[in-house]
Amino acid sequence: MAISKQGASRKNAHLALKITIEVQDAAEQFYPESYKLGEHAAAVITNRHRSQLTNLENVAASAFKTSDIFDYIKRQTARYDYWRRPHSQHSQEIFGVRLLNILSKDLEKKHNTICNKLAIQSDTDEGRHLYRHVYLLLIRQFIQQMVVQYEFSANLSQEEKESMFPQKMKGD
Predict the structure, then answer these.
(1) How buried is residue 119: exposed, middle or buried, by Cβ count under 10 Å (0-12/13-18/19+)?
(2) What is the DSSP string of the chain?
(3) So which domain of life are we looking at (predicted)?
(4) Which residues of 41-67 are buried (b: 16+ CB within 10 A; e: fewer)?
(5) Is the pTM of this model over 0.90?
């Protein structure tokens, strides 16, 4: 009996490692988009409302369901006009809606791809848990990257940013 528990434990650890690798790979792929959205946030939310995005990061880090994160974004978009502003240089889509679309559509596709690749199916309780977990990990990574770019852009002048990173300023 102990051998089968040990084997199951190894299998779970191996799957967890595979999930981590896949999520990190996806995070590298969506970095340019999180960069752009971080720039959008810096332009419309500005550093005067920094707590808005740190709270979003906290909600994402502690959420057990994606709907908790989506509901927070919807509430902030409804309450605050700066969540409803477009980024004049890049997109006419408002910040809150743009963020929701990326998380609920673009990351959903990446999530499905990862789950299919790792044969995670949502037809059992364990499968449903893993399925949701992968999606939450992707959302957390995206939000973390976006908030870091927001902090960077909202708190440094363009000259300071360019002097620190002259070659890599566009999420390349």
Answers:
(1) exposed
(2) -HHHHHHHHHHHHHHHHHHHHHHHHHHHHTHHHHHHHHHHHHHHTTGGGHHHHHHHHHHHHH-SSHHHHHHHHHHHHHH-GGGG-EETTTEEEEHHHHHHHIIIIIHHHHHHHHHHHTT--TTSHHHHHHHHHHHHHHHHHHHHHHHHHHHHHHHS-HHHHHHH-SS--S--
(3) Bacteria
(4) bbbbbeeebeebbeebbebbeebeebe
(5) no
Distance CA 141, CA 31 (A): 9
